[in-house]
């Protein structure tokens, strides 16, 4: 028997090497090379004899003039779930390939099964392919989600060769692959979930989706670092990458887009996990602020912006004397380095003795906010906890803080103030630059330009 050839693949970027390397020369990742058998050259090209070649009838693609390409608005398919459509940029794009990643048990399969339910009710042909669950298990989840249309097609299969034949025969409008790590090609000796299998199966699904005009969703597991398992080239091949985030112990879920060729990557969708499935949260601000304390030191309401949607979140801070030689600094829901920077600004510009105190900062509700507009809320929360004095009731805060202590303006201030008015807030503390541009506001505006002015607010 001839010895099978093997090569080394980088798990991060898919770079190939004939020998093992400690550091990938392409992406710079350390200890990322794994040894796998060489994938045989596929005959499934556009003019080949494989399944993908048969899709085009064995003919080569011909160039088309730009002016003759149709770009009508009806190429997007509405899923009937507004939060899901928002993240996709307005709906499912025809013949697109969408990757949905998330932690195990976070609700990826539940979300996509609900999407299938609404699409079938609209009269579309939908095929749900599962490589992890049996048909009985999928039916049990479907019964929990409500009454389904009998026209939804289910398939339990892991062989991509069989899946390609079924997709070419059925030609559904939308197909779901759950999950890509369980799919395999028979002509590749590597095990399912390996670099070779994931790359080849994704490439095959990309070809069949574009050739047949099928919109395909593929589910991807994530690693402990929070990225989709498999080579990073997987994210480069697909049109859209969505991450389903949240804490398993909390009912709160966030669908976030990190790549979208057909829309913005700043939008988020908010869901609540219930016994009957995922429920849309149309007003995330009201949901986030449920049960927040009133008149407590260290609690500040901040106006953040996710895409075009303003979301109000509660920023909490706890400052107390330390019993250690080195004080502890902990941040949840925001960047810990940013918190350390803001505390250094307070020590330098206001003379606060924070070097002898532990500091804990938390964005309540499980949402992670990286926007600089919550800097002012973090500063006020730390200052409020340090002085043990609460902020005035029904107050809202937003603004960016610089290293010299100046409070800089932020974008879309009017939308943030309008959201505060809708939720009944009476006072808004914001940068002086933004306060001058907002006219005819129904809320009291307090403009500040430097952190030295914050002492009079407490």
Write out key terms for the chains shown:
3 domains; Rossmann fold; Ribosomal Protein S5, domain 2; 23 strands; alpha/beta; nine-stranded mixed sheet; 12 helices; 458 residues
Beta content = 25-35%
The top-level CATH class of the largest domain is Alpha Beta
Secondary structure category: alpha/beta
Q: Note poorly predicted spans.
A: 43-57
Q: Give, in spatial order, the strands making up the sheet with the most strands.
A: 8-7-9-10-6-11-12-13-14
- C-alpha-based Rg, rounded: 26 Å
CATH superfamily of the largest domain: P-loop containing nucleotide triphosphate hydrolases
Q: With helices defined by DSSP (H or I, 4 residues minimum), what is the helix count?
A: 12
* CATH architectural group of the largest domain: 3-Layer(aba) Sandwich
Q: Helicity range of the residues?
A: 25-40%
Mean pLDDT: 86
Total number of domains: 3
Query: In total, how many beta strands?
Result: 23
> Could you say what the CATH topology of the largest domain is called?
Rossmann fold
Write the layout of secondary structure elements.
Blueprint: E1 6-10, E2 16-17, E3 33-37, H1 51-55, E4 76-77, H2 82-88, E5 92-93, E6 97-102, H3 108-121, E7 126-130, H4 135-145, E8 153-156, H5 160-170, E9 174-178, H6 195-212, E10 215-221, H7 233-237, E11 240-246, E12 252-260, E13 268-274, E14 277-280, H8 284-288, E15 299-306, E16 309-321, E17 329-332, H9 336-349, E18 357-363, H10 375-387, E19 395-397, E20 400-401, E21 407-408, H11 413-422, E22 427-431, H12 432-437, E23 444-448
Parallel strand pairs: 6-10, 6-11, 7-8, 7-9, 9-10, 17-18, 19-22, 22-23
Antiparallel strand pairs: 1-2, 1-3, 4-5, 11-12, 12-13, 13-14, 15-16, 16-18, 20-21
Helix pairs in contact: 5-6, 9-10
